[in-house]
Write a structure and sequence with these properties.
A alpha+beta (365), B mainly alpha (271), C alpha/beta (338), D mainly alpha (290), C: 338 residues, two-stranded parallel ribbon, 41% helix, D: 290 residues, mainly alpha, binds adenosine-5'-triphosphate, binds spermidine, binds magnesium ion
Chain lengths: 365, 271, 338, 290, 365
């Protein structure tokens, strides 16, 4: 018998649409009570994977296990899942109340309880007044919240959420996220969550699954994945990274020098150096938000300052994004705005601490 | 047994039920006897030969075909337009008009037939093929309106809106977007109006001008003297055509595409 | 107002379809057109009632000639003022027609004629010899059709006149002089309850008998003959006071008379009339004493070699017309169980 | 709601005008003649007596005979409709969920019976159900029965004939509606705990109601207006209201009475249509779509 | 004649759905060549307003002007708009190629040019290989990109985009945003953009329109709106703000003291003080990301340090969000993560600079 501490497990799962392979080989576990997030570029197979778990799409090859049992051909209604579709899929002919009550009815919840639960769910998604409307009388974000309420209200064993917050504004989204997390904890329901919002993914997940092109690129705790990307793809996909081919210098007491192809030399830590496995040929990954800009060179021990010129500035509210040209190479830098952003054309120093210089093997992908 | 295979079996049974009389007619078309019933006592092609030589039936058949095609063209056009108005717009008197559009099938045909003739009498207008056609259009119209309406409500409005936002006029939007999406309903409407027209007796009896006969009126007039199996033979020929044509077309398409595939395979191999 | 009055270039003829109209077209209309240049537009109808309804809804002159049923209908058209006046001088072949068929028509339209008789037949009792012997049929006569023994195997024409006629015979009354109409209705009810089916066309009559759905019904002589010719063992009996009828070629008011008269005369040419008669299995209205009817005609049922038709009874048009409104409506109810 | 704001007022009328003109000219005006006729009388010869008489109306509305037949007619139409709906839904569902290629063929096959003229088709039931028909022959030969069963010429065969005639209309209407339903919705229902069948009942069925309702309306109205089927497949007593109308107009040449009768039928069926448009019609259903 | 430098102008526009008023009174201009973003909570009327501009929804009251001409009743196809729907609205029966080519066909573009333009558009949205597919064979994000391509390819006068990037991952989204901006500049097309992503709104817009509840709360240049919210709603909606009732102290030479209800005293600038119009009764608005956390009190001139205790930490990748309890009040603070986030339970100082203490009137809303 398989490991029963996994709510969902995919073993070598493949999905083909005719000649096109949407999911190439998916190995994945969703531990009990955990919150797992799928992150990946558009079209990488997130929805397809979710649909296979839900039982809406046939698995072409491989095994799908729920609570250790192979369920490749278990009908969806026996899986006790809560599912939020990317396009909501509200029942157009039912009122909002009936949409949310739907799943409860099939769980033989008493009438009075249903009314109570639906009202609560509507409160939860902050739409207490729309119970009598039809879906087509709601805005996009409102429909999405109803879809969420409908999936949550049944207190399922597994919650599958396909971008359930994408149509909400930042504040509401945050509130929903908190609620969602609370519900997940309270019910102890294993949750698979698809999102394109990285901070959401990082903030909410127990486990982050980065997918690309029908395979899992990396999975692990959010901080781990963020701080130690296993591939250039992950490094670049999570946040913005400057990835530069480099040669590893000889290790110093505390730090190792990293000679970038573009000419500059950075420092890195012993921990990172170990990842190179003795090879000199590496790529240095420096996150845009880990580079500190300032007018003066204020490099301290274990940090390097590279002079450059600001080429463009994007104003992002609390932060600004800069493209800084140094030695003919464009660096991307994201810094919080203190009083006001640095100006276009300004001469500037980029400070990079050794601990922020992550290494990857030279020709991995 | 899975639900789907039960549905499949039920469907086959329903189709068999629908085809039973057709099968009987076809079998009897090959019966040597005029009245035999079952079991059939002899096989013969004489009724097909008779059909071939029967100008009246062949002529009536051509008339019916033409009338049916024209009726379905006109009726489907008018009915689809009306359905579009009913579903896509709000305007005063909609319910009344909705009832009005269905009215033609609420009146016994013989009454409608006589009423229309009385009107023509008052106008001193002679009967004509055009009148017969319009008569058929009137009582096939509700079929088209009903079926197209039922489909139209479920076609998302926003794809039409998208088309117009891209510069298509409402008319262009209709032909490019709405029509293709409701094609099943329009085809159904066409089938309805064609078959109803092709099969109509009462209205046709009253409205047809001198010298015009359709297959049903021809048959109706023949009833006094026992129907000749030539009629069965005609039905058999039509049925065989209806079944065979799409099958032939499909297999031609298959052969063609197979050939194309082979050709392209060859190309990639040599490349 | 004569928007649709036939021009001398064409006349309109309506008749029964199938073999009858084929014979008409081939032996009458085509040669006639060739001879005179006048086109015959040929139409069909499914029954006399339907045709009269169409004429009534039509426009004057729209319909010209028709192959109509019986004396009774002639009277109806006369009542609706649709009769014309034939110039008999233009129809020399009229002299060959059985006088007893012409006289009733003349009587209705006050001496002149609006039609020429064309064929005749009987509505007798048809029975399946497998189940009913000739003797039994002969003994029971019209009452064979209300015999409990054949419940569910009895048929009948769903036409009010025929039903009442046979109802009269079954209640031992003179159909043309019914004293106790209630007794007739009761007989019709009895027959209705025993019957499997009221048929409404010759085709149905033939198929019911051929497939042995029913064993006994009244039937049209020509149709029964056709069945017998196909090898079905069906007996046919004209009971005492057997019901005869004729069909005529009727010219409606407002028609181009000369052209119509010429066509009528043409159709009464013996070879034309005989060909048509053979086609529909009903004897022509030609007098066998004056014309040689060939070999086949004399074998047709109801054929009277004497040419007097003395053994047959016909609907008395005056009597039946007088009761038409009432009886047809009452029959409609009685048929449905009232 | 209106896309073409400028034309929104005019557009529906432009779309409707050809149909309304056709119906108005070929139906409404002619039916006024019929209304007038219903107040005339039939004379002894079958000609019409012009005037304003209420006799026909008194007879039609006061006589139980007509009421009974009307009731019987509606009962037959009702059975027919229900059977058509029950029997027709399944193949419609099957066709809607069949791959595109076979779909067209299956739909075309539905229309096959129509190549055989209605009368012939109806009469051919005699060859199937008759005492020497196919069914009895087969059952006799395999020994299920000892002697032929009398199946024909009763109300059941009338309904059977009507069902056979009307089934394609029902199937096609339902199919057209089913074909337009978003598959995601049944999936959503199933994800919420419905079995396939429950999802069907909760989502597919209600969303196919426009087609089912349209099909049912057609079946009911056509069945209620039929007169040939009872003549061919019914027993002596089996009649429907349209037979009375037909007899009045054609056999009895009593157009005034026939007019009054047909107006009664029109009024009753019209009421049904009004109910349909109100509670099942497009307006009602359109609310939940778009 | 109205001001012709406005591509779109709404004057007192109202939209009612039966009894419900979705747009209460909308006054709004979209200047020529400008990029205007609608920002607002779910259900506030963004889509409705867009639809009215497009001519898809009737204006109940008021005037809608395009290039100075009242167009309340001009049919949509004569408005030369590019429109991206919130739910894509691709033509399900047409291939991707035909979907994109659709608008071109009606602009009488030559066949060969159409093929070229469509191919270019597909390249632009990074889906060069899907031309022959049907919409239902694409993922959500892919469909959205096609919808964008379809609207852009016709080079319209006005581009109306309803959350056109919501289904895309951050990287792709950024690329699309750059492309969109480039196209907008090149074509000089007035663009109305609906988004829930604030950094997107701030980065892209020439003008930001913050809506709430069917009215415009504030409009202006992004920085202006961000730095000087006109209402508590705007302050809270854009980013996260700590909004605290306060009493204005007497003005100092450079700074004015702000006495918070919760007990602490902050400083603010003369510029802000002016906004109070002499009233003492104000609300202080301090953005979460403008509060600097550190272990030590390092308050300088013009800055105040408030001691507190970290209650919760949310890991957001490059940043962390903290709830800090000080004097029984919860403060929200967002700070970039240097080496590692501050720990839950840690004692901490919140540094608030005078320039980051924005004032609002006391009882405005
Ligand atoms: N047909 C309708 N009938 C009634 N109310 C409607 C209708 N359509 C929209 N509404 C309401 O109008 C308001 C505005 O809707 P709108 O779609 O413009 O919101 P939105 O700002 O686009 O929201 P979102 O960001 O969630 O898409 C909402 O409260 C919605 O519920
Ligand atoms: N029916 C289909 N036929 C062919 N290809 C398909 C089909 N459905 C999806 N695909 C393809 O499979 C791939 C994965 O699709 P999926 O919907 O799982 O992506 P996703 O990760 O959810 O993307 P998004 O974030 O854009 O929603 C995509 O490239 C898509 O084009
Ligand atoms: N009503 C009198 C009988 C007329 C019978 N005609 C039937 C048609 C066969 N000639
Ligand atoms: Mg997806
Ligand atoms: Mg919206």
């Amino acid at each position: 018998m398989a490991d029963t501490t996994n709510a969902v497990e995919l073993q070598n799962v493949v999905k083909r649409y005719g000649e096109f392979t949407a999911v190439k080989r998916m190995d994945l576990t969703v531990p009990d009570n955990s919150f797992v997030t799928f992150l990946g570029p558009s079209g990488c197979g997130k929805t397809t994977t979710l649909r296979m778990i839900a039982g809406l799409t046939d698995v072409t090859e491989g095994d799908l296990l729920i609570r250790g049992k192979r369920v490749n051909s278990l009908p969806i209604h026996k899986r006790n899942l809560g599912l939020v579709f990317q396009n909501y899929a509200l029942f157009p002919h039912k009122t909002i109340f009936d949409n949310i009550a739907f799943g409860l009815k099939y769980r033989k919840v008493a009438k009075a309880d249903i009314a109570k639960k639906v009202t609560d769910a509507l409160e939860l998604v902050q739409l207490p007044h729309v119970a009598d409307r039809y879906p087509n009388q709601l805005s996009g974000g409102q429909q999405q919240r109803i879809a969420l309420a409908r999936a949550i209200v049944i207190e399922p064993d597994v919650l599958l959420l396909d971008e359930p917050l994408s149509a909400l504004d930042a504040n509401l989204r945050e509130e929903m996220r908190v609620e969602l997390k609370r519900i997940q904890r309270e019910l102890g329901v294993a949750t698979v969550f698809v999102t394109h919002d990285q901070s959401e993914a990082l903030a909410m997940s127990d486990k982050l699954v980065v997918m690309n092109n029908g395979i899992v690129e990396q999975e692990g705790a959010p901080e781990d994945v963020y701080n130690n990307p296993a591939s250039a793809f992950v490094a670049d996909f999570l946040g913005h990274s400057n990835i530069i081919a480099a040669n590893l210098g000889s290790p110093d007491a505390a730090f190792t020098s990293v000679n970038l192809q573009s000419g500059e030399t950075l420092l890195t830590t012993a921990e990172q150096t170990a990842k190179a496995n003795g090879s000199k040929d590496v790529r240095a990954v420096i996150r845009a938000e880990k580079i500190e800009l300032s007018d003066q060179n204020s490099a301290k021990d274990g940090s390097i300052a590279i002079p450059g010129k600001i080429k463009t500035v994007d104003y992002l509210g609390q932060q600004a994004r800069y493209f800084v040209t140094a030695n003919g190479r464009d660096w991307q830098v994201i810094n919080p705005i203190d009083a006001r952003p640095h100006q276009e054309g300004a001469d500037i120093f980029m400070h990079i601490a050794a601990r922020n210089c992550v290494l990857l093997p030279g020709h991995q992908d | 047994m899975s639900g789907w295979s039960m549905i499949r079996i039920a469907t086959i049974l329903v189709y068999l039920f629908l085809f039973a009389p057709v099968a009987v007619v076809i079998l009897l078309a090959f019966n040597a006897n005029q009245f035999g019933g079952f079991p059939i006592e002899g096989f013969s092609l004489r009724w097909f030969e008779a059909l071939w030589n029967n100008d009246a039936i062949v002529r009536a058949f051509k008339t019916s075909l033409l009338l049916g095609l024209l009726t379905s063209a006109v009726s489907t056009t008018l009915g689809t337009m009306a359905a579009l108005a009913m579903v896509r717009y709000d305007f005063p008197g909609k319910r009344t008009i909705s009832t009005l559009l269905v009215a033609p099938i609420l009146i016994p045909e013989v009454v409608l037939a006589v009423a229309l003739l009385l009107f023509l009498q008052a106008l001193s207008m002679p009967k004509s093929f055009g009148l017969l056609l319009m008569g058929h259009v009137v009582f096939t119209l509700p079929f088209v309106v009903l079926v197209v309406q039922a489909r139209l409500v479920s076609i998302r409005r926003d794809v039409e809106e998208a088309a117009m936002s891209l510069g298509a006029t409402p008319v262009q939007t209709f032909f490019e977007i709405t029509l293709p999406l409701m094609l099943p309903a329009v085809m159904a409407g066409m089938l309805f109006s064609f078959t109803i027209s092709f099969d109509d007796i009462t209205g046709t009896l009253f409205w047809k001008p001198g010298g015009v006969e359709t297959v049903p009126t021809q048959i109706f007039a023949m009833l006094r003297n026992s129907i000749s199996p030539e009629i069965n033979a005609l039905g058999a020929v039509m049925v065989i055509f209806t079944i065979a044509l799409p099958l032939i077309a499909a297999s031609i398409a298959r052969v063609m595409s197979a050939r194309k595939l082979r050709a392209s395979n060859r190309k990639t191999q040599t490349a | 107002k004569n928007a649709r009055a036939a021009t001398p270039e064409q006349v309109r003829f309506d008749g029964w379809g199938g073999v009858v109209s084929e014979a008409f077209e081939k032996y009458a209309f085509a040669p006639y057109t060739q001879k005179t240049g006048i086109k015959v537009i040929s139409g069909t109808f499914g029954g006399a009632d339907e045709y009269i309804a169409r004429v009534k809804a039509g426009q004057p002159g729209e319909f010209n000639l028709a192959h109509l049923s019986g004396v009774f209908d002639y009277a109806r058209y006369h009542g609706l003022e649709l009769t014309s006046e034939l110039n008999e001088a233009n129809i020399p072949n009229l002299k060959n027609v059985i006088p007893t068929l012409i006289d009733p028509l003349r009587k209705i339209s006050g001496g002149t004629l609006s039609a020429v008789p064309y064929d005749y037949g009987t509505t007798g009792i048809a029975y399946n010899r497998k189940y009913i012997s000739d003797d039994e049929a002969k003994a029971k006569g019209a009452k064979l059709m209300v015999d409990e023994a054949y419940k569910g195997k009895i048929g009948g024409w769903g036409e009010w006149k025929t039903r009442i006629w046979y109802g009269a015979l079954q209640s031992d009354q003179d159909p043309n002089n019914i004293k106790d109409i209630d007794a007739v209705w009761d007989m019709i009810r009895s027959h209705r309850d025993l019957a499997l089916k009221y048929w409404s066309s010759g085709a149905e009559l033939m198929s019911l008998l051929a497939e042995e759905e029913i064993y006994v019904t009244e039937g049209w002589s020509g149709r029964i003959k056709a069945l017998q010719d196909q090898g079905h063992d069906i007996g046919y009996l004209d009971p005492a006071g057997g019901l005869g009828w004729q069909e005529c070629l009727f010219v409606l008011r407002g028609s181009p008379m000369a052209a119509c008269e010429e066509l009528l005369n043409f159709m009464l040419e013996p070879e034309v009339a005989i060909a048509v008669a053979e086609g529909q299995s009903y004897p022509p209205a030609l007098d066998p004493n004056k014309v040689d009817l060939g070999k086949i005609i004399p074998t047709l049922p109801a054929f009277d070699p004497k040419g007097t038709l003395a053994s047959l009874s016909f609907f008395d048009p005056a009597y039946w017309n007088e009761n038409e409104a009432d009886w047809s409506k009452t029959f409609s109810r009685v048929q449905r169980g009232y | 709601m209106a896309a073409d704001i400028a034309g929104a007022r005019r557009a529906p009328w432009m779309l409707l005008s050809p149909s309304l003109a056709t119906v108005g000219l070929l139906l409404i005006i002619p039916m006024l003649f019929i209304v007038v006729y219903s107040f005339w009388l039939r004379t002894a010869t079958g000609a019409d007596q012009v005037g304003f008489y209420l006799d026909n109306w008194i007879e039609v509305l006061g006589d139980r005979f007509y009421r009974d037949i009307l009731f019987q007619t509606f009962a037959i139409a009702f059975y027919t409709t229900v059977i058509c709906a029950l029997v027709g839904y399944i193949p419609a569902y099957f066709v809607a969920n069949t791959p595109m290629k076979s779909k067209a063929f299956l739909l075309l096959m539905l229309m096959l019976p129509f190549w055989i003229s209605y009368i012939i088709r109806t009469m051919s039931w005699i060859n199937i159900l008759g005492t020497s028909g196919a069914l009895n022959t087969v059952m006799l030969s395999i020994g299920i029965i000892d002697e032929p069963i009398q199946m024909l010429y009763n109300q059941t065969t009338v309904v059977l004939g009507l069902v056979h005639y009307l089934l394609p209309f029902m199937i096609l209407n339902v199919y057209v509606s089913l074909d337009g339903i978003d598959k995601n919705l049944t999936e959503a229902a199933q994800s919420l705990g419905c079995t396939g069948f429950q999802a069907f009942r909760e989502v597919t069925l209600p969303l196919s109601l426009p087609g089912l309702a349209a099909g049912s309306l057609l079946c009911f109205v056509l069945a209620a207006g039929t007169y040939i089927t009872p003549i061919v497949l019914g027993g002596p007593r089996d009649a429907m209201f349209a037979n009375l109308v037909f007899e009045a107009i054609v056999t009895q040449l009593n157009w005034p009475l026939g007019s009054a009768l047909s107006l009664v039928l029109l009024a009753l069926l019209g009421a049904l249509v009004v109910i349909y448009t109100r509670y099942l019609g497009i307006d009602q259903i359109a609310k939940s779509f778009k």
